[in-house]
Design goal:
Layout: E1 5-12, E2 33-34, E3 39-47, E4 50-58, H1 65-79, E5 86-90, H2 114-125, E6 132-133, E7 135-142, E8 148-149, E9 160-167, E10 173-180, E11 193-194, H3 197-205, E12 210-215, E13 221-222, H4 232-251, E14 255-256, E15 263-272, H5 279-291, H6 299-319, E16 325-335, E17 338-342, E18 346-347, H7 349-358, E19 363-367, E20 376-377, H8 380-385, H9 388-392, H10 397-412
Parallel strand pairs: 2-11, 4-5, 10-12, 17-19, 18-20
Antiparallel strand pairs: 1-3, 1-6, 3-4, 7-9, 7-14, 8-13, 9-10, 15-16, 16-17
Helix pairs in contact: 1-2, 3-4, 5-6
């Protein structure tokens, strides 16, 4: 009889102080310490005869293509499996070091720091991955109060958490692979401490189980309308809300999954880069956006500031030498009725819903920020309104349709 095997561990990979933080163009200064640990979490499901899939989730703004490949190789070496069986995902916390990935977009220039990268890779290579038998089950549950659509409170947002629960034969919860869609932006640009933000707080609240967090279609979803402040207390509150709902789901029955290793398939989508408006037009947009910034930290103030950030970002893109096309790695992991679609972009919630509804798999979860990073993919309303995300996207609407169509065809093939 085939036996499903789990190896799971979380590594504290917090860098020392003194390094630049990523996530906000308005942030100045370098990290002065750690509010809560940044982690690299490895969850490997396999059988004796099948390498299965190893999920590596990292508390970072993103993992660019080069870093993703290095992390996959490091995790593969730790497990003794090919790197092609490793999926590398970033939580998208806005309080991690920029030195891991370097410049992921012209909007926030940064440089990769070799010492930080090597320290991270060394920790992953040295991870202890002792396998033990488990039973896998699936649950999902609605979570209200952590995030909403960040352009309008009642806009599109998948507020369900997907929960892959891994129990020992005796019934103890060994690990959870948890996905949810919402920007980890409880801390703002004034914060100068490393933090995993609310995903880290949710993980801590679900201990001692090892929790791997996967970020969903969160391009236009954040705590903008739900957070009640900034700082550690609010991070704990939001993470606690999510963890509490996960515990409720775990207390009830789940869908038993086969005792077989998950299967991964991969493809590459070659997509054209949009024509960015010329520099003079972009600079005019910057001037208009500057005149409309109101300086408050409420939702209207954040939207006016991000609009300015987007205008400045588009101006930087106009001055940069952008490639004519980008090669996006896309993968699908299946385990029984469950399919995780993994993309290296920040999909809007509407796109996630489209991919789910068009999937032939009974349960489909859409995961972003995986195996690379190629920025936002925006919906038609954002493109028409010229939102922050629309100003700095690499892709126009026809290309966005191409991305969704080709991804759906691949997933259903």
């Amino acid at each position: 009889m085939t036996e499903l095997l789990l190896a799971a561990t979380s590594l504290d990979v917090s860098p020392p102080p003194g390094h630049r933080l990523d996530g906000y163009a308005a942030r100045t200064g370098v990290a002065i310490g750690t509010a809560d640990p940044l982690q690299a979490t490895l969850i490997w499901l396999s059988t004796q005869d099948d390498p299965g899939v190893l999920w590596l989730s990292l508390d970072a703004i993103a993992t660019g293509a080069a870093l993703s490949a290095e992390l996959a190789a490091a995790a593969g070496a730790a497990a003794g499996i090919p790197p092609s069986h490793v999926v590398v995902s970033a939580s998208h916390t806005h309080s991690g070091p920029s030195g891991w990935t370097g410049e992921i977009h012209p909007i926030i220039p940064a440089e990769q720091e070799s010492d930080l990268v090597e320290s991270l890779l060394s920790a992953v290579r040295a991870a202890s991955l002792q396998r033990r038998p488990v039973k896998a089950s699936w649950r999902s549950i609605e979570v209200v109060g952590v995030g909403t659509n960040r352009h309008r409170r009642n806009g599109p947002h998948d507020n369900t958490a997907g929960i892959l629960a891994l129990h020992s034969p005796s019934g103890s919860l060994e690990a959870v692979l948890l996905d949810f869609a919402c920007h980890p932006t409880t801390y703002g640009p004034e914060n100068l401490q490393y933090s995993a933000d609310w995903p880290g707080a949710a993980r801590a609240a679900l201990a001692p189980a090892v929790v791997g967090f996967l970020q969903g279609a969160a391009g236009d979803v954040s705590p903008r309308f739900t957070r009640q402040g900034r700082g550690a207390a609010e991070v704990a509150r939001l993470g606690g809300l999510l963890a509490g709902r996960v515990r409720e789901a775990l207390a009830g029955p789940g869908l038993e999954l086969p005792q077989a290793a998950p299967v991964i398939r991969r493809t590459t989508l070659n997509l054209p880069v949009r024509v960015v408006p010329p520099a003079d037009e972009s600079e005019e947009l910057v001037a208009v956006a500057e005149s409309r910034v109101n300086g408050t930290d409420d939702p209207s103030g954040r939207m006016s500031q991000t609009r300015l950030d987007g205008a400045r970002g588009q101006a930087l893109m106009a001055a940069a030498s952008l490639p004519p096309c980008l090669a996006l790695p896309v993968s699908a992991v299946t385990m029984g009725d469950v399919c995780w679609i993994n993309l290296p972009v920040e999909l809007f919630a509407l796109h996630g819903a489209c991919l789910q509804s068009d999937s032939t798999h009974p349960i489909t979860r859409v995961i972003g920020y995986t195996d690379g990073y190629f920025g936002y993919v925006v919906d038609p309303s954002a493109a028409a309104a010229g939102t922050y995300e629309a100003l700095i996207t690499y892709f126009d609407q026809p290309t966005t349709t191409q991305l969704l169509t080709q991804t759906t065809t691949f997933v259903n093939s």
